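Lecture 7, part 2: worked example. A protein chain together with magnesium ion.
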Amino acid sequence: RAKDAGRGTWRAYTSELTTAARNHLKVATELREAVAQGDLVVYYQPLVDASTGDIIAAEALARWHHSDYGWVPPDQFIPVAEETDLILGLGEWVLTTAVAQVASWRRQGLRLPRLSVNLSPRQLHQRDLADTVGGILAHSGLEPSVLELEITENAFLEEQIRTGGLLDQLHGRGVTLAIDDFGTGYASLAYLKHLPVDRIKLDRSFVQGLPTDNADLAISRSVAALGQSLDVGIVAEGVEGPEQAGCLADLGIAELQGFYFGRPLPAGTFTDFLQSGPRRRPESC
Ligand code: C2E
Ligand code: MG
Ligand code: MG
Ligand code: MG
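Predicted complex, written out as structure tokens:
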């Protein structure tokens, strides 16, 4: 709803942003203020079990409510934040907020087995990241295995991230790791052999054309097989309709995420969603 209402203002913001491209400092400054003033919000999108439709996880997604431009989507501000150290504070804020939210749901008797939080490459250069993450989890009382961190393939282009041992440290604490937007990056698949990857998120560009597009079908089938042989879980992203859902379930993909099962929602609405009864169940195609 907010998105629809804000569509015009987004565009205004987008063109404004292009004009301001020479002036990243302004955006960065506003974003810094936004973080400090609490103008950022975390939305939650469900991930469901492909065979039962049960919610098995939520992905935390940052939103910026700008006083002049309305809702600004993450694609417009995460890249700006990533160019500065701002992403570090923002990323930690999202993590802290989302972990506290899951702990609060749990106190209300609403069990969410897993929380996914996106991590930017710059965060993976923080030597104390594993301690920070460990501290946030300890404070919440949640067991570390509740948390999954999502990293895109391009992070593995950086030698230090591949070999620095930070991913092993995080994994050693019980946090799981997922590769986000799988298939769209530039890294070689070698990282799957050496790094503690628990899950692969098949990018939505390969889900879009299902079940009719032969290339999408071949790619989705191959990724499902890769997951089975490597014993890595697979999530399909961007599932928008029942045909896609059914097709992915038939391919043996265990978890599905997309508008068909639920859009990203603010915590209050997601609470209702967690409480509500029957889910959409994927039907065979
Ligand atoms: P992502 O991590 O791949 O997140 C999934 C994106 O796909 C979300 O976009 C979500 O709204 C969108 N999506 C989900 N289901 C569907 C669907 O069925 N169809 C379509 N067309 N889209 C769908 P969103 O929230 O706009 O976020 C965009 C990207 O911004 C994220 O992609 C992630 O890379 C980044 N991002 C968002 N929040 C954070 C954050 O807290 N930290 C970092 N580092 N990055 C973030
Ligand atoms: Mg993600
Ligand atoms: Mg993704
Ligand atoms: Mg994405």
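Confidence is low (pLDDT under 50) at residues 1-5. Residues 181 surround magnesium ion (ligand 4) (CB under 6 Å). Keep this in mind for problem set question 3.
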